[in-house]
Amino acid sequence: MLYFDTSALLPYYRQEAASDRVQTLLSAQTQPVLISHLTEVEVASALARWVRMGELTEAQANRIDNAFQQDIHQGRYIRCPIQLACFQRASHWIGMRRTSLRTLDALHLACAEVHQACLVSEDDALINAAVFFGLAARRV
Questions:
Q1: DSSP string spanning the chain?
Q2: What is the pTM assigned to this prediction?
């Protein structure tokens, strides 16, 4: 099973360098992809930032948000809860001070670990941390 962090998911909805690779990977899946509730918050944050910076219009942001919500409701994604164990694991990894993991990335990584999924990301620092901790991870 795959766990997509937000950096891997957004190119599916907005044209970016990784968009073709993300489309190919998502189309090849025979089962839903895991995301967390954190992903939904980060998608909302990215859309708001892009509107504020003039990269998207309000209408474009609404279309992306609607498509994302529709994909959740249609079962393309399964939302996994961020359990207490995820917070504890993320805190442990950050506290080791051996990687450049930041709070939200550590939570994404912990969700992937708890659900025994391969983390898919466009964030090299996150992928490097996953590899450092011996977890399955790949770039889109």
A1: -EEE-HHHHGGGTS--TTHHHHHHHHHT-SSPEEEEHHHHHHHHHHHHHHHHTTSS-HHHHHHHHHHHHHHHHTTSEEEEP--HHHHHHHHHHHHHTSS---HHHHHHHHHHHHTT-EEEES-HHHHHHHHHTT--EEE-
A2: 0.95
